[in-house]
Amino acid sequence: MNHARAERQALCDLFDRLGPDVPTLCEGWTAFDLAAHLVLRERRLDALPGIALAPLASHTVAVQRSLKAEHGFAGLVRLVRSGPGGLYRLVPGLDAAVNTLEFFVHHEDLRRAQPGWEPRELSGDLEALIWRRLSKMAWLMLRRAPVAVVMRGPGGAVARGGRRGGPAVRLSGPPSELLLFCFGRQAHARVEAIGEERAVALLRSARLGV
């Protein structure tokens, strides 16, 4: 089982254990909303653009609501668990290429919105994979950062993003925590941020992510 499928199954186990009404780190979303989102992005390509493009968001919201009404929480979780669906099932390698980070982040969105959470101890293989992907995507995820960002990864590797010039903030921590920070979960990512106090504060409150 690859990491994308392992995270998918672990997230579905957590859905089943916590139920539909618990909060997530996705603003305004419960577990029910998150399950509907995951089904939508794999099985309703017509609604995908509205995830990122505000003018099309109303259609995406309507489809997400219709999925909740049609399938219910348990049905949506079964669909997620049975995946990958849609193109992710048809195109070899697409699930592992795209869904590893997607399901890891959303798994943590659910975990870390609950009281008493602690970071998981991940395998070295998964941490290494996350760093490889993160180091390539840093420029995109940090494009709205108001300061320069330097991240230090395994073995002294460095990834950079954010504004060129001016004050820089140096981030350190496991690749998984750096990924969550760069995905806009700064308040729930266990990273060390070193730099001018104002620069660190600006970065921690910035709208980051893809």
TrEMBL record:
SUPFAM superfamilies: DinB/YfiT-like putative metalloenzymes. InterPro entries: CHP03085, DinB/YfiT-like, Maleyloyr_isom. NCBIfam families: maleylpyruvate isomerase family mycothiol-dependent enzyme, TIGR03085 family metal-binding protein. This is TIGR03085 family protein.
